[in-house]
């Protein structure tokens, strides 16, 4: 640099030192940046070993992981029943119309919790199946509302440290067994393997679904999150399939033409209101030839109206409206006795031709409405017409249990799907399940009842375990190929879900979570730490996780699991390949620092 007269400034002795210092600082910073890029996420979530031993250790091996680092913090005790996407704390943000506040409303990313949900004060390892069907620990689901408000209906009774489930309900206070016996008389297909899958809307404590398990029928019990009743939590604590959900403004997360039977026992759903959209949604998910069962108002109004706080004229009008609506969407009255009425969805598609007339209601859905689109898809007041082919009709399917291993026709609707691909998948999972049982002997015992396959293809894992005393919720990603209809066609249950969000269940509701390359498929969309924290939320203390992934993702996930107080070990796959590994983990039982224990 020069003076304005052209003479240079005298040289600064410190300038070279400053330049060298700046270069060193820049290079160090750049080196640190590159290190951050190439350093695996596993170091961020590495954890110290928890000193407390598991109550039921999964064992040690050369593959045991001993990574050290920081652990996740505990959520406060008032989050013991935290359901992120159906959180009562956030209900006031949403409308009352059609109970939309009870639908899924997940928190934005900046409100997501990054802590471990604690168990309730006094939590115990759940009572094992089949005893759990009839009793559970009070401290595990410490809610008295049903016990106090429904005591005359015998939903449950508190006795000492336990809740006892006598099998009662609003429409069957004298026991669900006799109620289902009458239903079987009205629907003989329930007894010969024709009816295998069912959905119960407004399920109470799932006594109906629990009774059907003994009769070979697998039921998804559905009820919304509430402050007092905790219906779904009771169901899952008993070992009965259930999910949080409500028919409101969005479709249920199930494919079309899937359930063999749907049931409503005084569930108080206003079926004929809002253009009949609630009943139209039942029509969408029920397969042709399937049955819709209704007990309670307005069925048997002639004898019951006095106890319903109404008039006989009002109830007669409600029943006639319901019958007209069902007829318009191609149901027929199949049978009726006492408080139970049964309608059947017709298998003859000629009935739907009347919907071409613009004067008829409800109208036919246009071709732009995807029948199986069911993840945040708005309900529409129109009829989803089933395909005319036989592949979705109830009478076209093999009876249970034969249908489990028969390739459904709908497998050909999937890109790359075929009968051969289905058979190969079925055989593959038989081998894998046998290997899993060697690695985790608890499978097939009373320790494992509620199971989730977090990213299934055709339900092969569930099919391979069908003889064990457990049930499997098969989850298909809302971003993956639509294979869920195949799962239902073979007589299994499942639902759509996006693992970037929380699942529709209470904490501590599953004994075993199974992952098959979920992180490989979804890591570009979802932060893995949130998926792992969600797994921890829904997994019971002393429950297990089988994580099947590439070696890279095993190395990433394992330290996160340690940070959640899981004990894990790495194992080879059934073929001892190097590219894919299995992580066997067990969640430890711990109590909140705020606990009085």
Automatic annotation (TrEMBL):
Keywords: Glycoprotein, Membrane, Methyltransferase, Signal-anchor, Transferase, Transmembrane, Transmembrane helix. InterPro entries: Put_SAM_MeTrfase, SAM-dependent_MTases_sf. GO terms for biological process: methylation. It is an enzyme of class 2 (transferase). One of its GO terms (cellular component) is membrane. The keyword Membrane applies. It is a single-pass type II membrane protein. The chain crosses the membrane at residues 20-38. It comes from the Eukaryota. One of its GO terms (molecular function) is methyltransferase activity. Its EC number is 2.1.1.-. Pfam families: Methyltransf_29 (PF03141). Belongs to the methyltransferase superfamily. This is Methyltransferase. It comes from Solanum verrucosum.
């Amino acid at each position: 640099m020069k003076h304005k007269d052209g003479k240079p400034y005298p040289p600064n002795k410190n300038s070279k030192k400053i330049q060298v210092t700046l270069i060193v600082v820049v290079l160090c910073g750049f080196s640190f940046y590159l290190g951050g890029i190439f350093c695996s996420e596993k170091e961020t979530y590495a954890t110290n070993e928890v000193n407390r031993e598991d109550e039921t250790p999964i064992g040690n091996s050369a593959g045991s992981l001993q990574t050290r680092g920081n652990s996740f913090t505990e959520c406060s005790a008032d989050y013991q029943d935290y359901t992120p996407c159906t959180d009562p704390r956030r209900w006031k943000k949403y409308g009352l119309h059609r109970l939309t506040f009870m639908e899924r409303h997940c928190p934005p990313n900046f409100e997501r919790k990054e802590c471990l949900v604690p168990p309730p004060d006094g939590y115990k390892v759940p009572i094992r199946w089949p005893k759990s069907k009839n009793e559970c620990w009070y401290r595990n689901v410490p809610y008295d509302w049903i016990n106090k408000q429904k005591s005359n209906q015998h939903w449950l009774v508190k006795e000492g440290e336990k809740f006892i489930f006598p099998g009662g309900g609003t429409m069957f206070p004298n026991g669900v067994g006799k109620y289902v016996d009458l239903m079987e008389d009205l629907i003989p297909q329930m007894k010969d393997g024709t009816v295998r899958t069912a959905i119960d809307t407004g399920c109470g404590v799932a006594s109906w679904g629990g009774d059907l398990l003994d009769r070979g029928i697998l039921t998804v019990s559905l009820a919304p999150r509430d402050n007092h009743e905790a219906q779904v939590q009771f169901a899952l604590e008993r070992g009965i399939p259930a999910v949080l959900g409500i028919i409101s403004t969005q479709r249920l997360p199930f494919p079309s033409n899937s359930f063999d039977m749907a049931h409503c026992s005084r569930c108080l759903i206003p079926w004929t209101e809002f253009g009949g959209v609630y009943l139209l949604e039942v029509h969408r998910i029920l397969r042709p030839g399937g049955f819709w069962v209704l007990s309670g108002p307005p069925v048997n109004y002639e004898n019951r109206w006095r106890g319903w706080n109404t008039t006989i004229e009002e109830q007669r009008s409600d029943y006639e409206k319901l019958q007209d609506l069902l007829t318009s969407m191609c149901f027929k009255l199949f049978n009726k006795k006492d408080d139970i009425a049964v309608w059947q969805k017709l298998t003859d598609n000629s009935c739907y031709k009347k919907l071409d007339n613009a004067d008829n209601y409800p109208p036919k859905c246009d071709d732009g409405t995807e029948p199986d689109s069911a993840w945040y898809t708005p309900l529409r007041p129109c009829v989803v017409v089933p395909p005319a082919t036989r592949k979705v009709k109830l009478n076209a399917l093999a009876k249970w249990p034969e249908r489990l291993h028969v390739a459904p026709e709908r497998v050909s609707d999937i890109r790359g799907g075929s009968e051969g691909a289905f058979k190969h998948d079925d055989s593959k999972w038989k081998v894998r399940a046998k290997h899993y049982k060697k690695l985790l002997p608890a499978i097939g015992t009373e320790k494992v009842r509620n199971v989730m396959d977090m990213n299934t293809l055709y339900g092969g894992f569930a099919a391979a375990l069908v003889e064990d005393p457990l049930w499997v919720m098969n989850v298909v990603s809302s971003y993956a190929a639509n294979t869920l209809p195949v799962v239902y066609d073979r007589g299994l249950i499942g639902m759509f879900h996006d693992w970037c969000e929380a699942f529709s269940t209470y904490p501590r509701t599953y004994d075993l979570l199974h992952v098959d390359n979920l992180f490989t498929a979804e890591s570009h969309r979802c932060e893995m730490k949130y998926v792992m924290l969600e797994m921890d939320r829904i997994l019971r203390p002393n429950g297990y996780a089988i994580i099947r992934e590439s070696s890279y993702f095993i190395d990433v996930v394992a330290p996160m699991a340690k940070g959640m107080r899981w004990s894990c070990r790495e194992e080879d796959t059934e073929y001892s390949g190097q590219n894919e590994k299995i992580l066997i983990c067990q969640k430890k039982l711990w109590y909140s620092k705020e606990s009085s224990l």
